[in-house]
Amino acid sequence: MASIRNLNYVLTFLGIVFIGSLVCEARVLTEITPGFVQTKGTEFELNGSPFLFNGFNSYWMMHVATDPKQRDKVSNVFREASASGLTVCRTWAFSDGGDQALQVSPGVYDEQVLQALDFVVAEAKKYRVRLILSLVNNYNDFGGRPQYVQWAKTAGVPVNNNDDFYTNPTVKNYYKNHAKRVLTRINTITRMTYKDDPTVMAWELINEPRCQVDYSGKTINGWVQEMASYVKSIDNKHLLEVGMEGFYGDSIPDRKQYNPGYQVGTDFISNNLIREIDFATIHAYPDNWLSKENDAAQMAFMQNWMTSHWKDSATILKKPLVFTEFGKSKKDPGYSIYGRNSFMNAVYSSIYNLAHNGGTFAGGLVWQLVDEGMDSYCDGYEIALSQDPSTSSIISQQSYKMTALEHSLSSTLGTRRG
Q: Among the options 80, 208, 241, 406, which is catalytic?
């Protein structure tokens, strides 16, 4: 397997050596001083200069790192991602109940799994990748919202359904205790408290919140307000985002035309207007959301989705926007590597153009990067950079373009100040 990896490295290297060298040079220049990523209006800043990025999702990192023999997979992905100019990674800081749980039961943690998370943060720091750490899942994968409600039910708390996660005082306290435990943990490798570590770019309240009992967005709005205030009371150094897909709710009814034909109980406008929320996020899977439509219709939806959220982030929210999940599945009918690469090129071009034409759009995080030999984590959207040289080249080109734009904006800002 090592020889295959080396061969793919050579192929990838020959294709992107020039772009990769520029990315690496630019990355060194921007990360001499660590600093915390901050927001200023609709832009991200790092040490007083504009911060743009290209990034990725690897949700599995803590879970895999629980086994010391598998930790090289985490290191491999960070190394390959960094070599491709990727500077932000989004991953899970939760695993509630079940196999290899981080939180075995409310307030009870497995130290071995906590140390696995420590390793992930330490490796990110080593490879100069900033992290967006998500604190709970909406779905029952890795426990999530259903597990929190089940814990309460087992304890004799009167709960009716999983949406009580957002309103039941006992369940909300479970969540607050978890947030506090993660934010105040001292990393056993770096010796830094998580809330003081600039390796963390941002905290995410919940991955893809949804609420079936209230499609208006008001129930989730109340929860976000309470939890955002609580997280900020512990840590006011780091940025905070909700974890939203971007579905519009009732606050501005005409925006619902941009939804893929349904609502999920969130309101992109009102949920992100909460003062403690520092930036907005969107996800998009048109191949899944609009599975009966052809590629052209799906791409048209994607363009409208991105543009509408960019405009609303710039004019209503007045906060930065990050495309925190997107991808194209190998399991789609008629899938081809050419089709996936064309999709990624189109998304990347839109991110760059929107970032270039007025800012606000700061970057995108492709779903998802894996290492070789991780079949059990493959969901159809996986990309192994060492095995996919053409896709790796597209990713590296986007990294270079975003880095070049970042430096252009920095130079313009410097000239204005001068």
A: 208
